[in-house]
Protein: MetA-pathway of phenol degradation
Amino acid sequence: MEILNNYKKLSLAILLTIPFLASAGGGWTKQKGTAYYKVSQWWVVAAKHYTGTGGIDPNVTTGTFNTSFYGEYGITDRLTGIVYFPFFSRTFRNEQVSGTNGMVTSPGEAVNSIGDTDIAVKYGLSKPGSKFVFAGTLLLGLPLGKNDGGSDGSLQTGDGEFNQMVRFDLSRSFSIGKINAYGNIYTAFNNRTNNFSDEFRAGGEVGASFLKNKLWGIVRVDMVESLQNGLSSAEGSSGATIFANNTEFISYTYEAAYYATDKLGFSASYGGAFSAKLIFASPSYSVGVFLDLK
Structure:
């Protein structure tokens, strides 16, 4: 039972950062005074998890829902401010029922709070007019969520650690006939505190527009690899978070964004993992509405 409780907790430390990474804008910075704002709902519900060896085991059905605000604002033509704020986060665990007598052996529980928040600045490093655009981002992860909810402390809306991530993006826009498209690759280093292992991250995405640039289709691939330099118990405690550290995965995300007007649009995405260790073995989903103030 202790191991199952640990696995309920393990995946959130990394999954809660995915919505930010999926919106980070590649190597492009916003022009001064322009902005992009998005309110979205992201969720994952899982009855299975990836083990520390990459296998899949069952667990009590557990889920997380994040309602969040994401924003980018052009401070200068080269410098962009970015914020990701989950203003409502809910994590739940279903009740457990005995298969022999039908009695409830463990009641269901839920925790509601705000979630861990990211603030960042992105700086354009390439010359104006370059075919390839290059940018560096400094991100601070603020532990505003709850990392010890529920009767056993395993329900989380955050991981309880303050992290600092440096990321570099290289992007280029291009055309395929009449279709406008772009590509982006990135690499990042995530320095984590509270005895969590640091992480190396990398990934890429391609996007293409249709219907006179009203509809965009996007495919992303992200990788997280633990440097295995933290404690076996991420918070230095005896077992309750022993599997919350050293999460790894190679994931994919499909996203569609539709501009209903020049500024207002809607988006939806679906994400999963090609391979993973210590995360939920179920897909994630999101829907959102955005304002693109060019």
Q: What stands out?
A: Residues 2-10 form the longest helix (9 residues). The radius of gyration is 20 Å. Confidence is low (pLDDT under 50) at residues 1-14, 236-243. The first strand starts at residue 35 and ends at 50.
